Amino acid sequence: xxxxxxxxxxxxxxxxxxxxxxxxxxxxxxxxxxxxxxxxxxxxxxxxxxxxxxxxxxxxxxxxxxxxxxxxxxxxxxxxxxxxxxxxxxxxxxxxxxxxxxxxxxxxxxxxxxxxxxxxxxxxxxxxxx
Length: 130
Fold this sequence. Notes:
mainly alpha, globular
């Protein structure tokens, strides 16, 4: 029988593979690269939404590195920003924003929340058509 734990495991594996695919699409002659990366980004965003629902129902399934408050909020924020920027580099803006939103949901420090919100605003601005 299906369980939240089995679904979370499958979605975590799928997210990892999609992350890898976005990076490879960026580096391969698979035109239009931007549009193809956007498709992957959209899939990651949808998976992220489902995983957040799972964590709301079963918080024990959330990976330790996503839980907060973090023992070292500076390092947790640094990891979240680094991950978000890597996703941004692959043009996966919605997934990058999702990483930072998950950090926000688990970090009570107003200083760290301000930095994460600023990064989200920057990402949102970069995603707007000019």
